[in-house]
Amino acid sequence: MERKYIISIDMGGTKILGSIINSKEGIVARYKRSTKVQKEKVKKVDFAETLFTIVSELIFSSKIPESQIKAICLGIPGSVNPHTGKIGIAPNLNIKNYNIKQRLQKYTKIPVLIENDVNLATLGIQHYGYGIDKQNMLVVFVGTGIGGGLVFNSQLYRGSTFFAGEIGHIEIMKNGPKCGCGKNGCFEALASRTAIVRNIISDIKLGKKSLLSKLVKDNIPIKSKALLNAVNNEDKLVSRHISDACETIGLVLANLNNLLNLEIIVLGGGVIEALHTFMMPKIKLSFKNHSLASSARGVRVVATKLGDDAALYGGLALAEEFLEIKV
Question: Which residues contact 283 (CB under 8 A, 6 or more apart)?
Fold first, then answer.
């Protein structure tokens, strides 16, 4: 019997991850590239053409015949309509009102599906991670920004205009720092990696000591691995700002759980993946301190075991939902 696969591509805030995958073998081919490189290419060529290049590279490297690829599933960091294939807005990709399904379908006959990137990761966690036996779940990814995905009664909740899960833009501090969405004091503007790094850089420029001072002086981007190295070397400034973010994350999760009374809250994203040993105990303590006791007893707060692969596995569930195919 001919083996079947899908191509899953996750367009993250800092990197693009691609794979050829099925449910039996898992990931059989991988692709990874910086989103910065992608943005530069998008300016010169059509976004769909760039994506088709990634699809072609995956097929070529895997040596799997195109006839065995049954879907192309895209995780987009922004608002998308999975039924029409239209991207409403994806700020990190500089894209607005763009029908990626129609455009990409000009290059390939393989069916194209799209979903919000965190929703796609949520589907992966629901079907292949901690959410397998859970009916009500919240997934929160902390990275360049903060995004969320919701599962109610075992179904992904997309909302009336496909915008559900944007927890990063809950306003929690009046007159707080400016968020990328244009508002002030959003959750994302206080607890994402972008926010943590902004606060660290601000203190270093004020003359406070840190192991990251040289990176700031040389204008080198501070990524999650640099934060982890600083924490492992007991950098007090970095540890304090990450701890502040953990307090905020726990607070927001507690308030959401007080409202929704969930079974499980799963955390992921680059920051959590790199720093889960340091962050998770602090997030859980904050969650407990801000929760109603009876609500907190009924929920687990965990870090995803799928890591960056969550969205890639989510493509399998998306293909089954929209194309009724199981690979």
Answer: 246, 249, 250, 253, 267, 301
| DSSP letter assigned to residue 144 | S
128 within a domain of the structure (yes/no): no
Same domain for 86 and 160?
no
Q: Are residues 147 and 172 in the same domain?
A: yes
169-208: per-residue pLDDT in tens?
999 999 999 998 889 999 999 999 999 999 999 999 999 9
Q: 150 CB contacts (<8 Å, ≥6 apart)?
A: 122, 137, 138, 139, 156, 157, 164, 165
Question: In terms of domains, do 80 and 156 share one?
Answer: no
Whether residue 140 is contained in a domain is answered as: yes
Reduced to 3 states, what is the DSSP secondary structure of residue 148?
strand
Q: Are residues 199 and 59 in the same domain?
A: no
Which residue is it, tokens 């899960």? 165
Per the domain annotation, does 165 fall within a domain? yes
Q: How confident is the model over 265-300, as pLDDT tens digits?
A: 999 999 999 999 999 999 999 999 999 999 999 899
Residue 50 CB partners (closer than 8 Å, separation 6+): 38, 41, 42
In a domain, 96, yes or no: yes
> Domain containing 292: what range?
134-305
- Widest CA span in the chain: 66
Q: Are residues 188 and 254 in the same domain?
A: yes
User: 15-45: b or e for each residue (b if 16 or more CB lie within 10 Å)?
Assistant: bbbbbbbbbeeebbbebeeebeebeeebeee
Cα-based distances in Å from 230 to 73, 116, 125, 233, 275:
37, 32, 30, 5, 11
Question: What six digits make up the tokens of 13?
Answer: 């805030």
Q: Are residues 159 and 272 in the same domain?
A: yes
Instruction: For residue 313, give both structure tokens.
Output: 């596995």
Q: In total, how many domains does the chain have?
A: 2
Whole-model pTM: value is: 0.93
